[in-house]
Each structure stands twice: as structure tokens, then as C-alpha cells.
Design a protein that fits this description.
Largest sheet: 6 strands, mixed
Oligomer: single chain
Shape: globular
Structural class: alpha/beta
CATH topology of the largest domain: Rossmann fold
Number of strands: 10
CATH class of the largest domain: Alpha Beta
Strand content: 15-25%
CATH superfamily of the largest domain: P-loop containing nucleotide triphosphate hydrolases
Distance between the termini: 28 Å
Strand order of the largest sheet: 6-7-8-3-9-10
CATH architecture of the largest domain: 3-Layer(aba) Sandwich
Helix content: 25-40%
Order of helices and strands: EEEHEEEHHHEHEHEEHHH
Radius of gyration: 18 Å
Length: 244
Amino acid sequence: MIEVKNLSVKYQNIEALSSVNFKVEAGDYIGIVGPNGSGKTTLVKALLGLVSFEGKIVFQGESLSRFTLHKHIGYLPQKMSFLDQRFPATAKEIVVSGVYCCKKFPKRLTKEDYAAAEAIMKTLKITSLKDRPIGKLSGGQQQRVLLARSLVHSPSVLILDEPTIALDPQSRETFYETVQKLNKEKHVTVLLVSHDIASVGKYASKLLYLDRQVIFYGTFEEFCKSPRMSEYFGVSQHLICHRH
């Protein structure tokens, strides 16, 4: 579905990513992990066409430069700007706004758009939240609403950038389980960015460990058995795998 070839990104003279190569198959659940400053968010921005890069990104056989991604990718960034308690929108209004990415001007909402919002909220079991102000919801509830927003236009790929960073442990697990269910039952291809290898390894089918370049790409089991990763991480590899 996605192929990244020799991807490099520079900010001024600083190389954020260097010669990154990997492939994503349809139905994969990829956990993109690595330390702070390793280029995870930069990789996401490159996949979305938001930063200039060298190399090539191919999506369903077409170069990124020739492909309109909005209809095919759902995106949940690290932070959203409208979660202030006073923001005048209900959960359902936030969810249905996710269809705007696929509309031409003038962008008008239809009955079908609201029906799609109702359907995805039902799938994520958040229908009871639909009339509540987004700013009055808990962190976990907000994230599920924003997840619904990213899915309302039925994308084939879902990209999540540190979606659980502000959640408590129980909300984090619930969110991960929801995403896994979408991957298994709805066959949505998932790329999820996180700094927590053990938590992501519990759910993802593959790990992409990034530190400006690809250090490891494979299953969590392969990660735990890799002599190269044992040398790279030292004792911490055992701790990560034991937590899983």
C-alpha cells in the first residue's frame, strides 16, 4: 500500500531523517517508535505531504506528488486546537467536520454526512457523547471523538501521532484496543506513532524503530529475539520485552 524509498528530510542544515526505507502492506498495524527527536513526527508529515523531502513515497502504486491523499488517509495529530472547554461544538459536530477534507467548494454538509457521523460514533461506542460539548469531555472521550472524526470519511489508512500521550493508563488501553479492533474487523491499515515500545508492541503487527534512520523493522517477537537490538538497547531490551 505504501512504499518509502530513500526518504531524507532536512530542516535548514539539520538532517531529521536519513535514507529511510520501508513498506506497508494493506491491513498492517505499524507501530512507529523511537526516542524524542528521532524523526517520528517528521516521517508522518512527509507521508502527508506536509514537508519537503528527498527520495520517494509511493501510495498504492502512485508517487505521492501525483496522488490526492485526503480521501484515503485519516489523521489524528498530537494536539488539536479546539479542545478548550469553551469551544462551541458538540462531539457530533466535531466528528462530522471530518468529511470536509473530501468536499469541493462550497463545502456543505448533507444528511449522508451526518448519517456517516452517527455510524462511526456507534462503531466506536460513543453515541452517548454526541450532544455533549467537546470541551466538557474527558481526555479519553475526546480522543475517541477525534478518532471518529479521522474515520468518518472511511479512509483506507489511519495515521495517529502520539494519540495516547495525555491519557491515563486505563484510557490508553481502551484507545489501543479500539484501534486494534478497527484494524482487525474493518481492515483499516494503521500507522501509530509512540515512544512506548512495550505498549505498542502489544497491539501492532510490526514495529518500525526510528532514530533518524530505520534501526529495526519487523514484528515485536523479532525485535525481542534480535541480537542486533540486544546490542543496541542493552539491558533495556529485556525490560521492554518483559513488560509486553
